[in-house]
């Protein structure tokens, strides 16, 4: 039932690049290309372009298409490129077509815009999106798109819906979803992703219910730390996992929680701090305060220092 091309390639750390803007606020494709190229060369398993961290909400369709095409060109087939798609069904289908034309390998289907839909409405939306594209689709659970286990079972029966990314963090619900899909569709290789803003903090908990794939916001500005944590997590190096959790990731989450939109703006500040000018976030997001940027810099230095303590 599955389309294995994308599903079989999503094995490793998933990179969600920021979208680069110039001083005038316009798209800076050269900086975006450099960011994607550096992430792939550092060891990313996939590039998720123009998704939440990439400010999908702030991009015009033309900018979206240009960024996805640039990501496809920079990866050159070395790793898959997954593009965001969202808003209502009609616009989500439009973005899906743009992504397909730009050469993307798949879609991350974001929650519908604004409305609070029931389960049948959500099922109709994502089924229509999947039916309108030849790309594989990962459905993103968060905010106003929260799924009952039976809804995920129905979604998993759509051939090109290959997985569920969880940005909600309800492990009880995720366990029931995984169990329901496994029971109803024992031969279906359906993927699950930890999609919380700083997924490393809950990595151990998600692995406990069989979810090993996750997106790493930290990878965008410090692939060294992100890769070291991922390696430790997958090899059972609890000492390194705990050292990075205690000394870097928990303080980072504490900092992230001090401002609205920091899940994106702090990441972008981190990328700038590491030497690549990707510009500021677009409205309605705001830049982090100077004090918080300074604290982020200190955290990055601490995280890098912790790698030397192994």
Automatic annotation (TrEMBL):
One of its GO terms (biological process) is D-glucarate catabolic process. Pfam families: DHDPS. Pathway: Carbohydrate acid metabolism; D-glucarate degradation; 2,5-dioxopentanoate from D-glucarate: step 2/2. Pyruvate binds at residue 53. It catalyses: 5-dehydro-4-deoxy-D-glucarate + H(+) = 2,5-dioxopentanoate + CO2 + H2O. Its EC number is 4.2.1.41. The keyword Lyase applies. One of its GO terms (molecular function) is 5-dehydro-4-deoxyglucarate dehydratase activity. It is an enzyme of class 4 (lyase). Keywords: Lyase. The active site is at residues 140, 165. SMART domains: DHDPS. Belongs to the DapA family. This is Probable 5-dehydro-4-deoxyglucarate dehydratase. It comes from Actinacidiphila rubida.
């Amino acid at each position: 039932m599955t389309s294995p091309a994308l599903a079989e390639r999503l094995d490793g750390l998933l990179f969600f690049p920021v979208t680069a803007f110039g001083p005038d606020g316009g798209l800076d494709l050269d900086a975006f290309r450099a960011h994607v190229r550096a992430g792939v060369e550092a060891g990313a398993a996939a590039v998720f372009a123009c998704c939440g961290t990439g400010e999908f909400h702030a991009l015009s369709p033309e900018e979206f298409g240009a960024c996805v095409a640039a990501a496809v060109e920079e990866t050159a087939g070395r790793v898959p490129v997954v593009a965001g798609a969202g808003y209502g069904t009609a616009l989500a289908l439009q973005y899906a077509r743009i992504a397909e034309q730009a050469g993307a390998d798949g879609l991350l289907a974001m929650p519908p815009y604004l409305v609070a839909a029931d389960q049948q409405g959500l099922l109709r939306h994502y089924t229509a999106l999947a039916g309108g594209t030849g790309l594989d689709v990962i459905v993103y659970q968060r905010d106003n798109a929260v799924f009952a286990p039976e809804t995920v079972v129905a979604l998993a029966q759509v051939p090109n819906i290959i997985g569920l990314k969880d940005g909600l963090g309800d492990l009880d619900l995720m366990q029931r979803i995984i169990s329901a899909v496994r029971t109803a569709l024992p031969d279906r290789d359906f993927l699950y992703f930890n999609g919380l803003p700083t997924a490393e903090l809950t990595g151990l908990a998600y692995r406990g219910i069989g979810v090993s794939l996750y997106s790493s916001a930290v990878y965008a500005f410090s692939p060294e730390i992100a890769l070291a944590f991922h390696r430790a997590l997958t090899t059972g190096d609890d000492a390194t996992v705990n050292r990075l959790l205690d000394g870097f990731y928990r303080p980072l989450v504490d900092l992230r929680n001090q401002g609205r939109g920091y899940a994106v703006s702090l990441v972008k500040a981190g990328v700038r701090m590491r030497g690549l000018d990707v510009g500021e976030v677009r409205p309605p997001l705001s830049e982090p305060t100077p004090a918080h940027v300074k604290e982020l810099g200190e955290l990055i230095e601490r995280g890098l220092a912790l790698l030397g303590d192994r």
